[in-house]
Amino acid sequence: MNPRDSCVCMYLSSISGRLKDTLSLTHMAPPPGIAVTLLLLLALQSYGFLLSFASANVYIVYMGERKYGNPELVSESHHEILSYVFGSKEAARESILYTYKHGFSGFAAVLTPSQANHIADVPGVVRVIPHRFLDLHTTRSWNFLQVDSHFRNGVLSRCQSGVGSIIGVMDTGIWPESQSFRDEGMGDIPSRWRGICQEGERFNHSHCNRKIIGARWYIKGYEAEFGKIDTSDGFEFLSPRDASGHGTHTSSTAAGGFIENASFMGLASGLARGGAPSSWLAIYKVCWATGGCSSADILAAFDDAIFDGVDVLSASLGSPPPLASYVEDVVSIGSFHAVAKGISVVCSAGNSGPYSQTIINSAPWIFTVAASTIDRAFPTAISLGNNQTVVGQGLYTGMDVNKFYPLVYGQDIASVDADEDSAGSCELGTLNGTLANGKFVLCFQSLSQRSSTAAQRTVMSAGGAGLIFAQFPSKDVSLSSDSLPCVQIDFAIGTYILTYIGATRNPIVKLNPTKTLLEQQISPEVAFFSARGPNSVSPSVLKPDIAAPGVNILSSWSPAYSLLQHQPSPVIFKIESGTSMACPHISGIVALLKGIHPTWSPAAIKSALITTASLEDQYGQSIEAEGAPQKKADPFDYGGGHVNPNKAIAPGLIYDIETSDYIRFLCSMGYNNSAISAIAGASITCHKSTNVQVNLNLPSITIHELKERMTVSRTVTNVGPVNSIYIARVQTPAGVSVKVKPSALLFNSTAKRLEFKVVFRPLLKVAGRFSFGNLYWEDGFHVVRIPLTVRTVLDDFYAEA
Ligand SMILES: *[C@@H]1O[C@H](CO)[C@@H](O)[C@H](O)[C@H]1NC(C)=O
Ligand SMILES: *[C@@H]1O[C@H](CO)[C@@H](O)[C@H](O)[C@H]1NC(C)=O
Ligand SMILES: *[C@@H]1O[C@H](CO)[C@@H](O)[C@H](O)[C@H]1NC(C)=O
Ligand SMILES: *[C@@H]1O[C@H](CO)[C@@H](O)[C@H](O)[C@H]1NC(C)=O
Ligand SMILES: *[C@@H]1O[C@H](CO)[C@@H](O)[C@H](O)[C@H]1NC(C)=O
Ligand SMILES: *[C@@H]1O[C@H](CO)[C@@H](O)[C@H](O)[C@H]1NC(C)=O
């Protein structure tokens, strides 16, 4: 056994030891769902328990655009490089996990750091990237379900429901028996499709059909880090089959067929369907129910998806900040190649909001999606012993409808060794089980206890009967568990209930079943958890791009966990919240648009959706963003605004971007010349030029440092009536002056693409904050709007002092 092997064995055994600890912990306190374990693992990861092992052994050796047409030659060249480093063909073959040979060239292998350094020097190797683990964007929630999507039908019928488009979903796999994936009425599999239906545990060819036309799974990177997944307990399947539910949820949101009378235990009932019910699905399982997704696996999935021929890729995953550079982040690299081949890549923005600069998946070629609320609410009445009723929200289906329970405040039943404040927010292990047993517990959100999730676990393990959780106003109810009655209230109601408890000898409480209320909640609003800009990698690229529904979404779910627990009725729909849920909404809409505009580039489709996005809620008022405090939403919350699919069909003008523009952009980022050449598949010499980033032809203009007069150019392509006249109109950001030249654009049969300049001038000599405006081009029929975001700065802030 060589030293490398023994090292691998050692850390694998220590990892599996930790995994066992984690599982037994959750067994002590029965989890409300499989995702409890998933989340616990993610939490451990964030404490560094797992991450400390995650960097040393798997490396991605990235070699850019492939050099040979024949994939076999490409993989031959990878083996040669490794043989050179290992000194033998056999050792090379053993170390290699994947060879990437379709969309681009490279491989993933188990290496020592010195071997990795060695390989970095081999000609043709662009970069050796230590492997990272990425998270699914459900971290805020583990109760899920979805209702019929709230888009109006117009776009569906006009786009024939996405006929002809193939959506690839990178996630935890799929539950193929879900009604969402029946193939009645689906067209035949297109002859251009080159994907496969990869078999595995409880998944064979019969599980693919004319809806799920391809399915693959990727585990080598994951297992190289964490050891073999034990599937004997039915907790996971070594196949495309989804054990956690997340992938089934996102796939059915993007392209699920129609299901009458879907509901989560009677709540949110109605017609369920995906955004593009007639699109085909191709499943790439890269994330595992035991927690996380490996970057080596993700890159392999990108490679295959490009080869297979998907039209749209939907990836509700990513690594948290600090972000890797665009030439090191696997989602950025994989999506660059996909976009260069005309495949739109749609990703979630992350769930670390409402804080500034938390946005992830921020490369300009990615379509980055923020989450918004919809017009559905789940009011839940709380009756107190003083004959008063207050209203919170939850997903309470009424286990003991008419029963009053004793009610206590967490702080009043603190365990002797616990801090009272921690007990007031029901932090883990702070409650006295004797005193909590059989009672409803009131707790208040605190800085160390941001979500009700841990509070639920605390109350459950203390034997409490239910939880009333006072928190910042948020519409997300998906965190309520199945097994513990839980209702969320705001601080004012929390304070009222606390007063009642203090003034009463035997305070009691009763929950009334949750109702589903439609159309009476102001919406959309940007969700509290949705990650915010500015972009921490390239501040002149506005992120997120757009907002779409991602709060309390009902969609299909994998029944694996409830089947495992022999629950009487398996959970096949769940309500879930996260930017993970927003992403597949956009993926579905992109598939619809591709159906009617098959020749449009990913940038053109993105432009159509961004320039037609809405800034108003259903009452015509400005969309707001949840936060502390709630405020009017700005482009750092929702990019161009809230998606408006029907308008995007005929946007009038588009801001298109070609691969060569992205390459110039990469040059301006200061990345290694040869790295960029390799990505481009041609020798590129980066030329020094100014303002490249701000001049990238995005459907937005973001100037994060305006010191003096600055001219920005954009080019628009007319996709509306051939002879059109567009007039510019500007809503000026505070503190600057904005001039558009020319102020009118005349399109005809020869003038289809026209350039214009926007001149910005600071009016104040002050280090300002970001201010926001809009540039509109209007022809009387179309309104083509892009957001303007400008911050004035002093020439030299330091010197001024
Ligand atoms: C495939 O799986 C289905 C359902 O589990 C089973 O009925 C069928 O026999 C399997 N087919 C093959 C060829 O193994
Ligand atoms: C819809 O489902 C509910 C409960 O799940 C059931 O009571 C009702 O009869 C169903 N309606 C139809 C039309 O199937
Ligand atoms: C609550 O209302 C009932 C019936 O209306 C009444 O009998 C009871 O005294 C009231 N209790 C309190 C605490 O006001
Ligand atoms: C819990 O409360 C009971 C009753 O007041 C008390 O006897 C016991 O010591 C407490 N235990 C802890 C761990 O606080
Ligand atoms: C790019 O990086 C490689 C290795 O890090 C180095 O050898 C090469 O000179 C760099 N190229 C440029 C143009 O900086
Ligand atoms: C289109 O417009 C341009 C510029 O206004 C003009 O030079 C050209 O002749 C026009 N072409 C046609 C076919 O009208």
TrEMBL record:
CDD domains: PA_subtilisin_like (cd02120), Peptidases_S8_3 (cd04852). It is an enzyme of class 3 (hydrolase). The chain crosses the membrane at residues 34-62. Pfam families: fn3_6, Inhibitor_I9, Peptidase_S8. One of its GO terms (biological process) is response to symbiotic fungus. It is found in: Secreted, Extracellular space, Apoplast. GO terms for cellular component: apoplast. It comes from the Eukaryota. Keywords: Apoplast, Hydrolase, Membrane, Protease, Secreted, Serine protease, Signal, Transmembrane, Transmembrane helix. Residues 58-137 form the Inhibitor I9 domain. GO terms for molecular function: serine-type endopeptidase activity; tripeptidyl-peptidase activity. The active site is at D171 (charge relay system), H246 (charge relay system), S580 (charge relay system). Residues 164-618 form the Peptidase S8/S53 domain. Residues 695-790 form the Subtilisin-like protease fibronectin type-III domain. Its EC number is 3.4.14.10. PANTHER family: PROPROTEIN CONVERTASE SUBTILISIN/KEXIN. Required for arbuscular mycorrhiza (AM) development during AM symbiosis with AM fungi (e.g. Glomeromycota intraradices). Belongs to the peptidase S8 family. This is Putative tripeptidyl-peptidase II. It comes from Rosa chinensis. The lineage of its organism: Eukaryota, Viridiplantae, Streptophyta, Embryophyta, Tracheophyta.
